[in-house]
Amino acid sequence: MLKRPLALIAALLLILLLSWSLRPRAASDVSRTALIMGTLVEIKGVGLDDKDMEGAISDAFDAMRREEARFSTRIETSQISAINRAITAIEVDPEVLAVLQLGQRISRQSEGAFHPGLGRLLKLWNFEAVSPRVPALSEVNALLPALIGEPVAISGSAVKRLNPDLQLDLGGIAKGYAVDRALAVLRAAGIESASVNAGGDIGLLGGHAERPWKIGIQHPRKTGQLLATLELRDRAVVTSGDYERFFLQDGMRYHHVFDPRTGFPARACQSVSVVTATVAEADALATAAFVLGPIKGLALLERLPDVEGLIVSATGEVEVTSGLKDQIRWR
Ligand code: ADP
Ligand code: MG
Questions:
Q1: CA 303 to CA 285: how far, in whole Å?
Q2: How many other C-beta atoms can be found within 10 angstroms of the C-beta atom of residue 70?
Q3: Which CATH class is domain 7-71+173-330?
Q4: Whole-angstrom Cα distance, residue 154 to residue 170?
Q5: Does ligand 1 have an atom closer than 6 angstroms to the CB of 134?
Q6: 200 CA: nearest ligand 1 atom
Q7: pLDDT tens digits for 23-44?
Q8: Please, which pLDDT band fits residue 1 given cuts at 50, 70 and 90?
Q9: Can you tell me the distance from the alpha carbon of 318 to that of 312, in angstroms, rounded to the nearest whole number?
Q10: Confidence of residue 87 (pLDDT cuts 50, 70, 90)
Q11: Domain ranges for the chain
């Protein structure tokens, strides 16, 4: 028989309390945002203690700012601005070389639908203006001849524009590349679980702790509503839509993804989401498929290995690549 039941209960309670407080704690998400490349970027990480995670996230943001400094056409000292001013070949960083090579490859694969040389056209349409307007047809047409053929010649680490009337703009790929760089920094810091979202350019490291990451695909016509969700690990997901940056004139929607053949916003899609290994590729391919439209765009995504996607046509029909059909949840 126990003489001191109260003491025993107290001891048991103490053990219980100790084991509770010493239990391996489920790591919580650390989430931070920063404004980079004109976009609100959110980085979420799991697994490190808060202080180390904050340090790694801050380094990842810095890596993205370095890419912005290389690629932005709004920054006069960027290497892209230097190529745009020069008439001779310019030595560039390996990062610029890698993105230009990828851009040219996707340009070829999409028969020029993705075109890294739309700088003049984008300036003419000037979406940054307080009240953007449709430019004169003659002004648009004057810019089209320079868009035929390869935009740049690459020799070693030197890059030269092939047409003096052409201006590079890497806006359809550089943000994705910057997200890839941020992921590389997080990975090097020992993080196995993270997501980087730069306004719809999403890169994922591992899963979300034990589970896959759940990624919502925005409905292109129902603001704030999801069209579908995807469960993914270690993937890039990028959506290009006509609802992100646009203005209305005479009841028409003019948005920021251009058909290089017409010099006007591409009309065949409302949105395209691409799932693949790197965010840079997903970014450029989403733009390419958007311009190509649901039939040719779907064919491009199906043809490329390790690439999947979802296309919403101009009339709202949804096309999905064969490899994604079983993974998608409709909302
Ligand atoms: P966001 O910047 O909203 O994520 P996208 O990834 O869809 O948009 O790319 C749109 C940007 O890509 C434009 O702002 C412009 O800089 C550039 N761009 C537009 N049309 C094309 C095109 N046909 N090929 C390559 N880049 C393009
Ligand atoms: Mg893009």
A1: 12
A2: 22
A3: alpha beta
A4: 16
A5: no
A6: 4
A7: 544 568 999 999 999 999 999 9
A8: very low
A9: 5
A10: very high
A11: 7-71+173-330, 79-161
Ligand 1: atom nearest CA of 113 is: 23
| Cα(330) to centroid(ligand 1), Å | 27
Ligand 1 within 6 A of CB of 172: yes
Question: Into which CATH architecture does domain 79-161 fall?
Answer: Orthogonal Bundle (1.10)
pTM of the predicted structure, to 2 decimals: 0.92
Q: In the chain, count of helices (H) and strands (E)?
A: 8, 18
Query: Could you read off the pLDDT of 180-234 as tens digits, one per residue?
Result: 999 999 999 999 999 999 999 999 999 998 899 999 999 999 999 999 999 999 9
Measured in Å, residue 171 CA sits from the centre of ligand 1 at 5
Encoded tokens for 54? 């904050």
Residues 6+ apart with CB under 8 A from 287: 113, 114, 172, 173, 240, 257, 272
CA angle at residue 310 from 294 to 171, to 5 degrees? 85
- Report d(CA 245, CA 254) in Å as an integer: 9
244 Cβ closer than 6 Å to some ligand 1 atom: yes
